[in-house]
Amino acid sequence: MTPFRQPLGQRPELLRMAQVEKTFHGGVIALRNMNLTVNEGDFVSLLGPSGCGKSTALKLVTGLMQPTSGRIDWAGEDGAGEKGAGDLGVVFQEPTLMPWARVMDNVYLPFRIRGVPFAEVRDEVLEVLRLVGLEKFQRAFPRELSGGMKMRVSIARALVTKPRLILMDEPFAALDEITRFKLNNDLLALREKIGCTVIFVTHSVFESVFLSDRVVVMAARPGRVIEELTVDAPYRRSEAFRTSAEYARYCRLASNALHRATGEAA
Ligand SMILES: Nc1ncnc2c1ncn2[C@@H]1O[C@H](COP(=O)(O)OP(=O)(O)OP(=O)(O)O)[C@@H](O)[C@H]1O
């Protein structure tokens, strides 16, 4: 059984942040005593007010930025291990595509960086484009695509290497509401097919509840986790879930937690 089909309490641990602190030059304490465990198959949203350190937490998980103190440990490593490039896929708010390259070449990029010839991974590139619904646009250039389509390319590029963990930093924040709903639905369908683990940063209570099985609420100054809400509603979630009393109840709980987080920061 893929881990995300297992009950939350029974999934193997993937990643643990323990008492992580990040202080930037100039003395800004972005995170202090940040504790978070992510298990294989989890869809975890980091929800919190602006400046509470959500993006900093993601950057620390990538290993491109180091904590000032505390530990970030990965299952199966002794704690000091470097992440293999195939272990992480990252999607940002801006799709950050190469404008001069066709869709298929943008998606091929993570392999090209590793020196893998296109012929060897052509099938993987086309398969992931099919999964995000863009197989007909494989030869298009980014300028020919809508904002939502560019984001799909960015997601395809993050998924093409089949990473253990996908990090998403407000990927849909710049999109209109209808496109955002559609991409939320499609992201869950993709997860259903691929079974990946996701850490998803968002400001949106509605988005976090719709997507996640765990909503982790953070407070600012200093940034840290203050509450966690388990969304115990079955996947695959549909429009019926989006309009259900159950969804409204979870949104109310998450919204109250966010108010407490903001109140703590005031
Ligand atoms: N490179 C940096 N140098 C100094 N301060 C920084 C740096 N990066 C982030 N910060 C500060 O650290 C704090 C946390 O920033 P971060 O971007 O992680 O928050 P966030 O929750 O993702 O915010 P938002 O939701 O607005 O994107 C903020 O006060 C920010 O100004």
UniProtKB/TrEMBL annotation:
<protein>
    <submittedName>
        <fullName>ABC transporter related</fullName>
        <ecNumber>3.6.3.-</ecNumber>
    </submittedName>
</protein>
<dbReference type="InterPro" id="IPR050166">
    <property type="entry name" value="ABC_transporter_ATP-bind"/>
</dbReference>
<keyword id="KW-0067">ATP-binding</keyword>
<dbReference type="InterPro" id="IPR003439">
    <property type="entry name" value="ABC_transporter-like_ATP-bd"/>
</dbReference>
<dbReference type="GO" id="GO:0016887">
    <property type="term" value="F:ATP hydrolysis activity"/>
</dbReference>
<keyword id="KW-0547">Nucleotide-binding</keyword>
<feature type="domain" description="ABC transporter">
    <location>
        <begin position="15"/>
        <end position="247"/>
    </location>
</feature>
<dbReference type="InterPro" id="IPR017871">
    <property type="entry name" value="ABC_transporter-like_CS"/>
</dbReference>
<keyword id="KW-0813">Transport</keyword>
<dbReference type="Pfam" id="PF00005">
    <property type="entry name" value="ABC_tran"/>
</dbReference>
<comment type="similarity">
    <text>Belongs to the ABC transporter superfamily.</text>
</comment>
<dbReference type="InterPro" id="IPR003593">
    <property type="entry name" value="AAA+_ATPase"/>
</dbReference>
<keyword id="KW-0378">Hydrolase</keyword>
<dbReference type="InterPro" id="IPR027417">
    <property type="entry name" value="P-loop_NTPase"/>
</dbReference>
<dbReference type="GO" id="GO:0005524">
    <property type="term" value="F:ATP binding"/>
</dbReference>
